[in-house]
Specification:
Two copies of one chain form a homodimer.
Chain A (H helix, E strand, L loop, with lengths): L2 H15 L14 H12 L10 E6 L2 H9 L7 H4 L2 E8 L1 H4 L4 H10 L4 H18 L6 H25 L3 E5 L4 H10 L8 E10 L13 H4 E4 L1
Antiparallel strand pairs in A: 1-2, 2-4, 3-4
């Protein structure tokens, strides 16, 4: 078996290893270096038009974990046992609208786009948001759009973790409004510029999962030749 | 350097390798085995409550690629040059509502959930969709929810590709309604049960990309200790 075949097999094994871990071994902690690595795969994830509309809040504080647990039915076993618990925030319309101060700063100062090129991009992104995908239909559709980008980072972080033997659990089982209140109270939402998108717990499993089930390839792939 | 450190470095190199490839070398084709591997990482991706609300259409037909190109400003260079071009479809409310025939079949026949357990799950998912995330607010919010899950598969497929030296480009730059018309005409939407979520082109780069830029970690990560 050559190097590429071995790599493919190793990657697929990580996909089989990964499962939604409901309960972690509370004694086993992820090293700082490994967790930094996981975050880095989030940072390096792609996002639509390069907006990077995300923020990763690492909730290690027990009191905050407790408050989140009261309003997150899907994180009952994970919040008390996870080595690291991430709340993934998405940027709201205040930051993701084509003409926001956030976008301008990102493009000019982080991505070093020349000002005249940025002017042209803005025209394109206006039409993209208004017409092509009708993202500006509502604040919610803008937030869901940013949320989709955060799911790219979410997937990459979970898969990268699995590739080095770290378990994870993605979590959508929470009361959106209540979680917002908890995060707002903890001053984590940058004055309405951020909102909760998903949660993800990381750690080491305490028990073996059930076998993975998936629809067959023939149900989910269609070729048009 | 031990095995884990080498693996982490190799994964981060793949993240650096990956970029939104605008133009591919039209002469270089991905092998069937490698593309099957990429699709498999999509298949094995997680999704909220296990709904797998996706379908991957591999558009190799030149005529269909041409029609998509007319309504996809963001795929101008990719559609004519990509080795493989995927249209990622998301399942609509017809399939993703907690009491749909799709969900019932998936849970009972694919996941082999016992009927009484499925009954309890349905109550939970009803409340999840109606109250917790208010997904049932509109058909659009349900579609955006399914769309988010497809972005998990999208990220995994692009990263897995990069890990074996294959380039990709995720694409949102298209006119949603027009693409729907093209896909409907090609009879790919299962009678309104599917809608376009994103596109992604795969192949081999024809030129080297500009250096990657990202916001610093300190801007996107916040610890609550």
């Amino acid at each position: 078996m050559n190097n590429k075949e071995a790599k493919k097999q190793e990657i697929l094994e990580a996909f089989q290893f990964r499962h939604a871990t409901k309960q972690f071994d509370p004694e086993k902690k992820i090293s700082d270096e490994d967790f930094e690595f996981i975050l880095e795969t989030g940072q390096l994830s792609p996002s639509s038009v390069g907006y990077e509309p995300w923020k990763f809040v690492v909730v290690q504080n027990e009191e905050l974990r407790g408050k989140l647990r009261e309003v997150s039915w899907g994180a009952q076993g994970q919040l008390p046992t996870a080595s690291h618990f991430l709340v993934i925030l998405a940027r709201t319309i205040k930051d993701t609208k084509y003409d926001s101060a956030y976008v301008e700063n990102l493009m000019l100062n982080v991505k070093k786009v020349p000002e005249d090129i940025f002017g042209q991009m803005k025209v394109r992104y206006k039409s993209f948001q208004e017409n092509d995908l009708k993202l500006l239909e509502s604040e919610r559709s803008m937030l869901d759009w940013a949320g989709k980008q955060t799911y790219l980072a979410l997937a990459n972080m979970m898969t990268a973790a699995a590739q080095i033997g770290i378990d994870s659990c993605p979590i959508e089982g929470f009361q959106f409004e209540k979680v917002q209140e908890v995060l707002e109270e903890a001053d984590l939402l940058e004055d309405g510029h951020l909102a909760v998108s998903a949660m993800v717990a990381f750690g080491y499993r305490s028990q073996e999962p059930r076998p993975k089930t998936r629809k067959p390839m023939s149900d989910i792939v269609q070729w048009v030749k």
